[in-house]
Amino acid sequence: MTKKEKLEKFKKAQAQTVVTNSTEETESIDFEEVYLTRGQLMWRAFKKNKLAMFGMWVLIVMYIAMIFADFLAPYNPFQQNLNQFFKKPTKIYTKYETVDLKTRMAPFVLPEVSYIDPLRYTRTTQSALFPSKIKVRFNDGRELTIVSSTVVEERDGKIIPKYLPKGRKLDGEIVVSPSIKLVVQTLGFAKIDGEWKQYKDDTEDKDYLIFGLEDELLKEGFNVKITNSRTARSVVAQNEGWKMGFFATSEQEALERLTEVKLEERLLAIKYYDKDYNEHQIDLTNAKLVSYDYKFYPIKWFVKSWGPNKTDPGRVGYLFWIIPLHYHLFGVDNYDNSELVSINIFGTDRYGRDVWSRIIFASRISLSIGFIGLTITLLLSLLFGGLAGYYGGMVDEVIMRLCEIIMAIPQFYLLLLLRALLPIDLPSSQTYMLLVFILAFLGWPGRARIVRGQILAERQREYVEAAIALGYPDRRVMWRHIMPNLATYLIVSSTLSIPGYILGEAGLSFLGLGIREPSASWGNMLAAAQDVDILQNSPWLLIPGAFIFIVVLAFNFVGDGLRDAMDPRTLG
């Protein structure tokens, strides 16, 4: 057989396979259309819309998070911590590094402090190094290891490391101290007319060092920082210039003459305390720092961070709003109860409250208000629209004119008017219900007109006229024969209307007319990000807006998918 004959034979076999597959596929489709129920056909049509499936899963995740908010929130959403206001999202570490040890460990966080940067004179939040172990070698060869009592425990006269990094062992003479402090000398210099002049000589005891700024003190024993920032030069010229005999007629002249600022830091000594809190000091002129470790706080699953307890009964979390909850999905093992330690995956707000915890709790309001408001709107629209469409006449005229009057007023201004007529200082629970009824009141007229039009059309159908002729009561004719034919419209329109309720609540809360502090909703959380300075320095406060955007988009995707699934033409 020649190559040409073999090729023709292969093409015939391939064509036959395509025809066979096409026939099997057609038979499969016919089988599905004939034997699948209407619900199964609708689900098949819905699954074909990828965006609708994406929106459905997003909403499932969001509503599960809403239900289990207490479990997913690592911190009490109402608890303030002014030591961590406007804190950026927590940096999670997996690599531990000191002068003599580099190792990878399970995820952990470090204490974070708010301080004024001495080079830029701006307030910022940065990770801090709190010494947990320091080992020194004296000039006579003797070695001493000072360990913080928070990272070890004594058992049967033995000191057992508990919160020291992996691979670290305690050896030599060991002293357990309640506190370890570093004695640091800071010298300040300004470069004036090309010559360095000293303006500062301070010595202070430090509990911690700033990572990336001062941690070189433990590695090298000294640290030098030089800057030519305008702010630093201006501050030194205005506040410290007289110490150096420096005077200028204008700020511009001062900045031109004072060109650089330098800070030199030196580690002079180490202070520690014995069990009786007697102070001891090791002068580093008589000893050398061999190694050191710093405090770290492991991230763990199922942490007992906040919840019902005897010492603070106000810190209560509940599962399904009924079962007292002690454990939460994730958190930090804060073994020494430091106020500087937390895991804030979305940062904190101006009061030091965890943004992630507040977003999860706010979803209970922002996601539930749509369904509750929609339920009331549907009841009103079905009631009034049904009466107007079924009975007609004067009833129809009165109801429709009322709908037109309400619809003639711009909804946003009517929303503000209705809210302004009511007390502004209501509790959040009453404000929530108030918003539900206001939004429902604004939503029913338009839907009632559409229900009325569809009922007018359905009332002319033969099966409805037959039911009336048989003497069935009006209620049975309405609910058994007319209303089932409106189900498709009601389901699709309701899904597409829920985002309007979410946006309405968010808008009122953003303006201060809805849910108010300390309660949380996505709208009033966005209100904290109105200031331009906050937007520049704390952009994470805009994250609630992203949740609003995602949820509204997801509802629209699902609404489009339902509309396609309920279209008879897509069911075959």
UniProtKB/TrEMBL annotation:
Domain ABC transmembrane type-1, first and last residues per copy: 363-559
Membrane topology: Multi-pass membrane protein
Highest rank taxon of the organism: Bacteria
Compartment(s): Cell membrane; Membrane
CC per GO annotation: plasma membrane
Gene3D superfamilies: MetI-like (1.10.3720.10)
Keyword Amino-acid biosynthesis carried by entry: no
GO terms (BP aspect): transmembrane transport
Protein name in the entry: Peptide ABC transporter permease
Native species: Fervidobacterium thailandense
